[in-house]
Automatic annotation (TrEMBL):
Cellular location(s): Nucleus
Region (Disordered), start-end ranges: 238-262
Gene3D superfamilies referenced in this protein's UniProt entry, alphabetically: Phosphatidylinositol 3-kinase Catalytic Subunit, Chain A, domain 1 (3.10.20.90), Tetratricopeptide repeat domain (1.25.40.10)
Record-level GO cellular component terms: catalytic step 2 spliceosome; U4/U6 x U5 tri-snRNP complex
Domain Ubiquitin-like: 1-80
Main location: nucleus
InterPro entries in alphabetical order: HAT, PRP1_N, Suf, Syf1-like, TPR-like_helical_dom_sf, Ubiquitin-like_dom, Ubiquitin-like_domsf
Record protein name field: Protein STABILIZED1
GO biological process: gene silencing by siRNA-directed DNA methylation; positive regulation of primary miRNA processing; spliceosomal tri-snRNP complex assembly
Annotated PROSITE patterns: UBIQUITIN_2
PANTHER family attached to this UniProt entry: PRE-MRNA SPLICING FACTOR, PRE-MRNA-PROCESSING FACTOR 6
Keyword set, alphabetical order: Nucleus, Repeat
Species whose genome carries this gene: Sesamum radiatum
Length: 712
């Protein structure tokens, strides 16, 4: 089954098999059932045009179409002006009698005169897909207004398509369900019978016969012949089964020690097997030394030989021979194709012929000296001693190959020789960042600084080299390096973040926020889009590096980018919780700190921030946060109670009492605060204080009740 989306946004369901249907047959089916001419059909699959002349006889499956795939059908819009065409039926009637239209000549003359007056022919550049617009507006200029208009229409189309999406999907789902109901699978047809199988007992299960192959084509006719058994065989069988209870005269004459020839027992197969084992043991004993009694067979070498034996079936040997012939044809017909030589060498390696593989790849190096893959394969197949010579010839043939120089350095044993090889490669490829990084990793700190100074001159557009050099320089030189990097790479945010980290590391925390703010403005002037998610990841990375001030500055300057005003609270709280799950506590704390500057009176955000400080902060930071919270939300009972409880748990009962007294003044009618004060005194063995608090609470409650009655 294949789905086709028509130009009117309807989905056509075609019950066909892509593996047995050609593109031509599909076009004929659409023309026959939906009256769309083949010449006007434009079938697309994943933005790829299928309706081309060379694809007419190709199966849909070969074009990438699978069952349940969706094709898009476009029909060109034929615009412009055309000369009126006489009806075909009348024209055929006139032409059958050899007549012509009376106005045929004047019409053509008028059309030619009209085209000459206009200076162009309207149908001269008629495009079958775009209509006559290609001829009328071929010389028109596509300006910004046209681009803006196209964008507006495209947005309208997307909006209309999204409005019809649910209805279209529901209709498509309904059609699919209807199709599946009318064409059920085999498993669905027997689903009810399968559900009834649980009622069978064990005996009934065992009585189910096994499925056998009863087809006639698999039955072989056997010719059965019946031959009568000879009498000699029957007599021999009788003698074998006969039990003799008396000795014959000849046996008695020999004293009963001689067995008559007629009664020799039948040969026992088990005895024959035991005899063979005995003979084998005798042969093995002959291999042992008659003097020392030690065996001359090397057991380790014997096992090694067994391990080295490669058991190859006839089918594998045949496949290898076929592949060998095929690759031989490839290398002979196209000797300049490097991958053919590589494949041929690897085939011989798999077949257990390393010498042949080396000879083939050597010939490949001669035929394809400019292919680095061939040289790398030759180096891999060669021994360790010969590999250096092979790679030396490779870098001589291709001195600008980074892979070959890296492989040459890898073959060296000590770091000094590796560094020498890499520096030799940098003489040929001074702009290779990979070679510079490799040689810097092998150098000490002082040499690495000198190498990076040369590296940024050769590769000024690679920010990793600039940042590595800044980390090795002193504070003043690092600032100069970062300023030069900013001039070379004005659109790179990592330079500004590194500058902020540098200032924080040297104690200039006041400059961190200014640098981040200035950097964001500079990037926006350069046309760089501020990606909020990327900057948040940079903040988490700065936290992991120990640059907390840089982390806070990044969050403060980028947390509001791309967030709608009505979504700020929900988005920021979600961001903080995600950072908390990832272990980025300072990043989450910075997000809550910024959110509290915007939403000063939101109790939920204060509680989230307090929970963060309680889990990952100190008692002092939590107390400071709660103190700040009750100044903005003095009527929030939970904040007062949380502060008093933390003081109580810390063992500071007078401080807890003081917090509750402040809560009385802010919320005098709160029963929770009165009960919390009573519990504090009672748990700390102050029953008199607890009794006085309850009495005062009852008195206050009675007074308020009387006031309400009087007011009524």
């Amino acid at each position: 089954m294949v789905f086709v989306k028509s130009p009117d946004n309807k989905t056509l369901i075609l019950n066909l098999n892509p593996s047995a249907t050609t593109l031509r047959w599909l076009s004929l089916h659409i023309q026959r059932n939906y009256l769309i001419p083949i010449s006007q059909q434009r079938l697309y699959f994943s933005a790829r045009l299928l309706s081309t002349p060379e694809n007419d006889g190709v199966l849909l499956s070969h074009l990438g179409v699978s069952p349940n795939s969706t094709l898009t059908l476009h029909v060109p819009f034929l615009g412009g002006m055309q000369a009126p065409v006489p009806p075909k039926s009348s024209w055929r009637w006139w032409s059958r009698w050899g007549w012509s239209w009376p106005w045929e000549g004047p019409w053509e003359e008028d059309e030619e005169e009209e085209n000459e007056e206009k200076g162009y022919d309207e149908n001269q550049k008629f495009d079958e897909f775009e209509g006559n617009d290609a001829g009328l507006f071929a010389s028109a200029e596509y300006d910004d207004e046209d681009k803006e208009a196209d964008a507006v229409w495209e947005a309208i189309d997307k909006r209309m398509d999204s409005r019809r999406k649910d209805r279209r999907e529901a209709r498509l789902k309904e059609e699919i369900e209807k199709y599946r109901a009318s064409n059920p699978k085999i498993t669905e047809q027997f689903a009810d019978l399968k559900r009834k199988l649980y009622t069978l007992s064990t005996e009934e299960w065992d009585s189910i016969p096994e499925i056998g192959d009863y087809s006639l084509r698999n039955k072989k006719k056997r010719f059965e012949s019946f031959v009568p058994v000879p009498d000699t065989l029957l007599e021999k069988a009788r003698q074998e089964k006969e039990h003799v209870s008396a000795l014959d005269p000849k046996t008695r004459a020999a004293g009963g020690t001689e067995t008559p020839w007629a009664q020799t027992p039948v040969t026992d197969l088990t005895a024959v097997g035991e005899g063979r084992g005995t003979v084998l043991s005798l042969k093995l004993d002959r291999l042992s030394d008659s003097v020392s009694g030690l065996t001359v067979v090397d057991p380790k070498g014997y096992l090694t030989d067994l391990k080295s034996m490669k058991i190859t079936s006839d089918a594998e040997v045949s496949d290898i021979n076929k592949a060998r012939l095929l690759l031989k044809s490839v290398t002979q017909t196209n000797p300049k194709h490097p991958h053919g030589w590589i494949a041929a060498a690897r085939l011989e390696e798999v077949a257990g012929k390393p010498q042949v593989a080396q000879q083939l790849i050597k010939k490949g190096c001669e035929e394809c000296p400019k292919s680095e893959d061939v040289w790398l394969e030759a180096c891999r197949l060669a021994s360790h001693v010969d590999a250096k010579a092979v790679i030396a010839r490779g870098v001589k043939a291709i001195p600008n190959s980074v892979k070959l120089w890296m492989q040459a350095a890898k073959l060296e044993q000590d770091d000094v020789n590796k560094s020498r090889v890499l520096r030799k490669g940098l003489e040929h490829i001074p702009d290779s960042v990979r070679l510079w990084k490799a040689v810097v990793e092998l150098a000490n700190e002082e040499d690495a600084r000198l190498l990076l100074q040369r590296a940024v001159e050769c590769c000024p557009l690679h920010v990793e080299l600039w940042l590595a050099l800044a980390r090795l320089e002193t504070y003043e030189n690092a600032k100069k390096v970062l300023n030069k990097a900013r001039e070379k790479l004005p659109k790179e945010p990592a330079i500004w973040i590194t500058a902020a980290k540098l200032e924080e590391a040297n104690g200039n925390t006041a400059m961190v926020g200014k640098i981040i703010e200035r950097g964001i403005r500079a990037l926006q002037r350069e046309g760089v889009e501020i990606d909020r998610e990327m900057w948040m990841k940079e903040a988490e990375a700065a936290e992991r590096a120990g640059s907390v001030a840089t982390c806070q500055a990044i969050i403060h300057n980028t947390i509001e980018v791309g967030v709608e005003e009505e979504d700020r609270k929900r988005t920021w709280v979600a961001d903080a919780e995600e950072c908390k799950k990832r272990g980025s506590i300072e990043t989450a704390r910075a997000i809550y700190a910024h959110a509290l500057t915007v939403f000063l009176t939101k109790k939920s955000i204060w509680l989230k921030a307090a929970q963060l400080e309680k889990s990952h902060g100190t008692r002092e930071s939590l107390d400071a946060l709660l103190r700040k919270a009750v100044t903005y939300i003095p009527h929030a009972e939970v904040l007062w109670l949380m502060g008093a409880k933390e003081k109580w748990l810390a063992g500071d009962v007078p401080a807890a009492r003081a917090i509750l007294q402040e809560a009385y003044a802010a919320i005098p009618n709160s029963e929770e605060i009165w009960l919390a004060a009573f519990k504090l005194e009672f748990e700390n063995h102050e029953p008199e204080r607890a009794r006085m608090l309850l009495a005062k609470a009852r008195e206050r409650e009675n007074r308020e009740s009387l006031d309400e009655i009087c007011n009524c």
